[in-house]
Amino acid sequence: MNTPALEARIDLSAVSHNIGVLRAHTSAGIVAVVKADGYGHGAVEVGRAALAAGAAQLGVTTIGEALELRRAGITAPVLAWLHGGNADFGSAIEADVQLGVSSSRELDAVVAAARAAGRTASVTVKVDTGLARNGVHITEWDDTRDALAKAVAEQVITMHGVMSHLVRADEPDHPLNDLQTERLDEAADDLARVGAPVAVRHIANSAATLTRPDLARDLVRPGIAVYGRSPIPELGDFGLVPVMTLSAEVLSVKKIPAGQGVSYSHSWVAPNDTNVALLPAGYADGVPRLLSNMLSVQINGHRYRNVGRICMDQMVVDLGQNPAGVSAGDRAVLFGTGAGDGPTALEWAEAIGTIDYEIVSGIRGRAVRTYVSGPITGEVV
Ligand SMILES: *Cc1c(COP(=O)(O)O)cnc(C)c1O
Fold first, then answer.
1. Which ligand 1 atom sits closest to the C-alpha of 100?
2. Beta strands in the chain (DSSP E)
3. How far is the CA of 126 from the centre of ligand 1 (A)?
4. Whose alpha carbon is nearest atom 2 of ligand 1?
5. Which pLDDT tens digit goes with each residue over 183-229?
6. The CATH number of 244-343 is which of 3.90.640.10, 2.40.37.10, 2.160.10.10, 3.10.180.10?
7. Ligand 1 closest atom vs CA 221
8. What pTM did the predictor assign?
9. How far is the CA of 95 from the centre of ligand 1 (A)?
């Protein structure tokens, strides 16, 4: 009925299903990662659905993202793990946001904010066990550990957790996965030795949760799998169901003669008389321009190829002789669950050498999110 011209439909029952798939793979508590506005799906809506399906808590990158969940009334534990120099630790502490801490400098700021608020901050130390991104590097560990122990002794923080992030989780048998997990355990043991034991340890992302259950500790932190996308496509879909379906209204269908070029620079020229359909989706909405002449959409069950450059706001598909009678007002699925040979975000990603994380988290612009929680296909394995 009132479907937006460009719609990103979010199926929250698929979120529940995917949490079920993850729970079937681990007995650890699930931290559903809803950073980057829920990988482009809506952090609040996905967060609520994940919690209702049994996730233990939510994880985000920034304090701003955590506070948005709080403002929406989500009271479950939330962890935020990446902070700038002006991060608002005070508001985070007031709002009971668990803070990931990556250096003793950051710890100092958290301690100062906790003192100012007259509250105790819940701290999870992020250890860099090999990714060399955020996290306390091994060379600075002793100082940070001692500073954590001191802050615990002064009762200005509680030592909640130790976390780390895997480098090669998409290669389940790689020895680095084991080495990183050993380093995580060592850090936790070390904290216990200095009188600052942690309540929880966690390192597994989606890929490790699904393929290396032995690496799960108290919690796991899946992101992409919550959204129904395989973290390791070569190993199959693990029974996950993609949550986002991007579809566009066919704005017009018109005949063009053989020899007519289409869109900027006429990068495609009709070899025969043909029919083309216009769709209101472009690179400003997150359809990569690099996919010009490479993607195909599905209309009423049939696939049609994009022809000509993808523009900022529009793209064109070739209907040929239009035997199926596509007309204005029909809907084109740009990507969805892949059921019925439908197009997928993974197809887009593979065509341009990236991952579908980047595709789904990049959907924006005029794409209007709608939420449904209908029945889903697919079995919990
Ligand atoms: C993004 C992120 C995750 C989730 O990773 P997926 O591959 O999407 O499962 C987990 N932990 C941290 C620290 C992250 O940044």
1. 13
2. 6-11, 29-33, 57-60, 78-80, 98-101, 121-128, 136-137, 157-163, 200-202, 219-220, 244-249, 252-256, 261-262, 268-269, 274-279, 296-299, 302-305, 315-320, 331-335, 368-372
3. 13
4. 223
5. 999 999 999 999 999 999 999 999 999 999 999 999 999 999 999 99
6. 2.40.37.10
7. 10
8. 0.96
9. 23
